[in-house]
Structure formats: C-alpha cells, structure tokens
Specification:
The chain is α/β, with parallel strands linked by helices. The protein has 14 helices and 16 strands. The protein has three domains: 234 residues, 3-Layer(bba) Sandwich (FAD/NAD(P)-binding domain), CATH 3.50.50.60; 114 residues, FAD/NAD(P)-binding domain (3-Layer(bba) Sandwich), CATH 3.50.50; 55 residues, no CATH class. The strands form three sheets. Strands 8-14-9-10-11-12-13 form a seven-stranded mixed β-sheet. It has a six-stranded mixed β-sheet with strand order 3-2-1-7-16-15, with helices on one face. A three-stranded antiparallel β-sheet has the order 4-5-6. It holds the Pfam family NAD_binding_9.
C-alpha cells in the first residue's frame, strides 16, 4: 500500500465539537469516513455556545419545521420532537432542547461507527503537514495523525471594545455568554447593553427571567432592533437566482416587499444569498457591510414571536429602551459605570450611570485577537489568513483554507461561522447543514447531485 492510500485510512480531524463540527462528523460517519472530533470543553460537545445554553427562555430563531439536521430529511427534527407537520411545525423551541437533539444524533452516529470514530477531550494547539498527512498536536502533548484537518471553531467572543475595556470586571461583562454573566444582578436598577442584535435580546430576556426588575438601555450605532417572525410560516414562491447587483438588486427587493411583504421578499432570497454575495466584488461587499448590514440583519435574523412580545411588554413598561448613538467614554464612578455617548445625528454628548455593562456587539472576526492557540500557530506558520473583510478565515467555496500566499490547501479546511467572508450567510442551522453536507460528500468522494441540500 502506498503512502497516499495509507493516508486515506486515517481519520478526518475536526477541531471544534459544537454544532458545525458535530454535524460534519455525523455526516462523514454516515459515509464511512473515519473521524476524530476534538473539543476542549466537554460540556459543549454536540452543542456549542448557542445550543449549550441552559436557559429555557433562549429560543431557536428558526421554526421547528426548518431545523432538521439533515438536508435530505427535512422532517427529521419534527419526528424527533413528535410534532405535527401543521400547527407545531411553527413552534420556536428552546435551544437547550435542540442541543439535546444534536447530542443524541452524535451518540447514535458514534455507536454505529464503532472504532471509526473518536472523541478527543482536549485542546488543539498546532497543526502540521508532511508530504501526504496532517498532524494535530494537543495541549497535553499528544499528536493525532489524520488525512485532513477541518477547523470548526464556531463564533468567537465579542471584539474588545476600546471604550469599555477600562471598566473593572464587576462592572463590565466582555462576553455575555460567560457562565453566570446575568446572575446576581436582581438588585441593580439600570443595565447597559451595547449592541442590539439577537444576543442582546437573549441578555435582556435572561436578566428579566433572573429577577432583574430595573431598566435596560440598549445602545447601538443606529438604534435598530431585530424584527419578529410571523406567527405562522410564510409560503414562499421560489424565484430564480437574481443576476442584478448593488442598488438595482435593492430596488427589486424593495419592490417585491411592497407586493408580498418584507418577510416573503427576504425569504425568497434565502436559497440564493450566498451566490449573490459571491457575485459582488470585494469593494461592493465592503460597502454592504458598511452601510446595509445592520438593516439586513434585523430583517433576516428575526426573533421568535413570543420573544418579541416579551420585549415589547418591557418597552411599554419603560423597562427597556433602544438608543442610537456612539460610545465616547466609560469610567468607574464609585462602584457604578458612568458611560457617555453621542446620540446619532447630534453633536452633544449624553451620559448614563449603570450598574453593569454587557458587550453584545457581535462575534470578533479578527484572527489575531482570538484566544485560540491553534489559530495563532496556523497564522504564524502561514497556513491561514484572514478573509478580505476580517470576518474570519479565508476559504474557497468548498471550504478549503487559503494560506498566506492565497494558495488553496486540500488538507486544511473550515466550516461554520468562521467562513463568513466567503459565504456571508453561514450562521443559521439551514445554511450550516447545507455547507457540512457538501463538505462531507467532498471529503468522502461522494458524487454531488444538483439540488440536494438546498
């Protein structure tokens, strides 16, 4: 047996056992490919940060009907939940329930795979390559020989905010997903949340559920807040992949929204969003990120209706306020945070005093700031580079990572949110399940049938 054939008997090493890594492992095992799934936090195995939450108020932002783990079995999650395909299909179930679903799928896949699957409890610190194989070195010194490595590192913590970093830790939660971040705050009268997306909504709900009865101010550049899903799933008429770009595309979508409603117009683009992104130049993508991204996010990434109603009740009671402005300063003022900001469209500066500040400004995409030893090593070795927009790792459409010189590597790949620069829409379950489905077939040398996974 030559060395290349011998390499094919080695496993695919997946670094990260959250949603993306777990689902890739399950799909690879279905095709008979050996897998070594590496996860440093055993509690997050098959769940990750999003689905590892233990808080029942954190709901999925996608209906149960569209949460199957498998694109070739659209009703799999409905059957697992014992839901009907009519009324219950519109439910938004707790994310902790979905985490249980994923873990059960992994356990089942592991049982069927036997010795072809390994779960490695450890932290990947370095990746190396020889002529035909790859090696993953762990923090404890062990080395895993493999035929290829897939980075499935999920979303990173929020980027450090230069204005807020001076605050002491008892006044500032730099990562809203830290365990216990919202606990013990019931006696506070005022909390500031920086950023107004879905994570901010989670924090507000968790504060309310934990006994906090004070006021929450949500500050963002534009003061936007996520919109809500309709109570029942939309009936979307498929549309051809639009070939227009830029302002013309926006005009067409707005016109369509006027005819069928904005939800239908946005949902009709779902199968084509990644292709639309790829057809635009780097400069055009940058203009979108600079000017339109916040508006796209609130229309595309929506709240479950019940969550939106809870937030509306808090707003009506004066306990929740959305403010548009730019942070200017923050200091410890006798055990409270004195925060100043410039309201949008104004020259003057206003200040508020709060008992805690939460950074919910979205995941950091700067690879040089992320505290992940394997990324630091790969960067220093020239095996990876940032994408053009600093959203994550630079990859091609198959997920193969580009090195520092821009060369595609067949033995180093990536999936999930860290590939956002190439695909843009790659954070929701429907998008990631299609991505890992395609990558699993590629790595297993399975024939791709057009249309599957859409």
């Amino acid at each position: 047996m030559n060395s290349r054939n011998a390499a094919r008997d080695l496993p695919i090493a997946i670094v990260g056992g959250g949603f993306s890594g777990t689902l890739l492992a399950i799909n690879l095992l279905r095709y008979g490919v050996k897998v070594a799934l590496i996860e440093r936090h055993s509690a997050q195995l098959a769940k990750g940060v999003a689905f590892g939450t233990r808080r029942p108020e954190h709901l999925l932002n996608v209906r149960a009907a569209n949460m199957s783990a498998f694109p070739d079995d659209a009703k799999h999650f409905l059957r697992w939940m014992d839901f009907s395909e009519v009324d219950e299909a519109n439910r938004f179930v707790p994310r902790l329930t979905y985490g249980t679903y994923l873990r059960e799928l992994l356990v089942e896949a592991l049982a069927k795979a036997g010795p072809d699957a390994a779960i490695i409890d450890g932290e990947a610190c370095a990746v190396g390559f020889d002529a035909v194989t790859a090696q993953v070195r762990l923090a404890d010194g062990d080395t895993i020989d493999c035929r290829a490595v897939v980075l499935a590192l999920g979303n990173f913590p929020p980027a450090p905010h230069p204005v807020l970093e001076a605050l002491p830790v008892h006044l500032y939660s730099a990562d809203p997903w830290d365990k216990g971040a919202v606990e013990g705050l019931a006696d506070l009268d005022h909390v500031l949340v920086v950023g107004s997306g879905l994570t901010a909504a989670d924090v507000v709900l968790s504060l309310d559920s934990s006994g906090f009865e004070g006021k929450v101010t949500v500050l963002s550049r534009r003061g936007l807040k996520p919109l809500a899903h309709a109570e029942s799933g939309p009936v979307v008429t498929p549309v051809p992949d639009p070939d227009m770009r830029g302002a013309e595309l926006i005009r067409v979508v707005r016109q369509r929204a006027g005819e069928i409603g904005w939800r239908g117009a946005v949902d009709a683009l779902r199968p084509h969003t990644q292709n639309i992104w790829r057809r635009h130049s780097t400069d055009a993508q940058a203009r979108f990120l600079r000017h339109l991204r916040p508006y796209w996010d609130i229309h595309r990434h929506r709240l479950a209706p019940s969550v939106a109603r809870r937030l509306e009740v808090m707003e009506a009671a004066g306990r929740l306020q959305y403010v548009a402005g730019k942070l200017c300063g923050a200091e410890d003022a006798g055990g409270r945070a004195n925060v100043s900001y410039r309201p949008r469209g104004q020259d003057g500066v206003e200040a508020i005093e709060v008992g805690r500040v939460f950074n919910c400004a979205g995941p950091d995409g700067n690879l040089h700031r992320v505290a992940a030893p394997v990324l630091t090593q790969l960067l220093n070795a020239g095996h990876i580079r940032s994408d053009a927009h600093g959203l994550g790792v630079d990859v091609d459409h198959l997920g193969r990572v580009r090195d520092a010189a821009g060369n595609v590597q067949d033995r180093l790949l990536a999936v999930g949110p860290i590939t956002k620069g190439e695909a843009w829409e790659i954070v929701a379950v429907p998008d990631i399940r299609r991505q890992v489905w395609g990558l699993a077939r590629f790595l297993a040398d399975e024939h791709w049938v057009g249309g599957e996974g859409l």
